[in-house]
Hints:
By secondary structure, the protein is an alpha+beta fold.
Amino acid sequence: MDVISFFPELADHARTAIRLHPDPAGPDPYQSSVGGPLAWPADEAWPTCPGGQHLKLRRPHRPDNVRGKRSATTFAGLGEITWDEIPADMAWPMLPVMQVYARDLPWYDGFPQDTDVLQILWCPFQHRYEDAAVPYNGIAGPFVHVRYRHSRDLSGSFATSPEPVAVGEPGYLPTPCLIRPEPVTEYPHPGALGEEFEARVDEWEMTTFTTDDPEDHEPRYRWELSTAPGWKLGGHEPWNYQGYFGPVRCHTCGNEMRFVAAMASFEWDGGTASWAPAEFLDGPVNSRLRRQSPTDVRLGGHETMRIFTCPVSSVHPVISDLV
């Protein structure tokens, strides 16, 4: 469907997003990956969690137990771990979540000047903050670290990722994947273009995709024509059913933040299945479910994490939230 034919003004707001299509594999540090090893110089300190307090709602999990339960083979469980076994002053190394090289993404223009490698890590626990503004929408999630580099500086030996003794949720430990980048065109949430435009979209949806109850129409623009679901870089930031709440702004300088990436619990769901590769919707249910969540990441109630950085200064705090 050509949405521009219905709403010509969207042409000025089109952006290219890069869908990553993670695919379980054994990546190395020189490859773009999700959950794989990073090209992190051995002589550079590995980032540890500087965030708020870990929420202790449930027992944490040993990473090897999480991997074992995902395996098709029988494994010897190492037993549960309790918070009492973990020193209160322990330093928590952050986990690799994503690494992308510009050479693999010729369509992506989101790298800051003189960089061509993006690395994202997180602390695999929900966090509580003294400053309620730190997680942008107040939903507790992993604490995120973003690092840009240039590949010319990555000629030496690399650090082996130190592993935390536990993760707060199994879904905070990504399964290593290679990526299969795909450029797609996206358009903003209708609310970003004003109330009048949003009302026109609602009317178009009710007229074009009506059901027995005109008020019970499907939000097809949001599902199929606006922002792509799943893991992606750039494009327009995703929004949930609660609507559009304005641009995300830096807490330090007030400038509008740059949307960097989305890390998703699912590559698509029932409303956004039109974004799925056609061959992924065929076959047994178990196969479809595996393709729907190749990274094994689960965030909140099967939500998506959005990552934003400040375009003015790289030292201004990253903003992340769940939608």
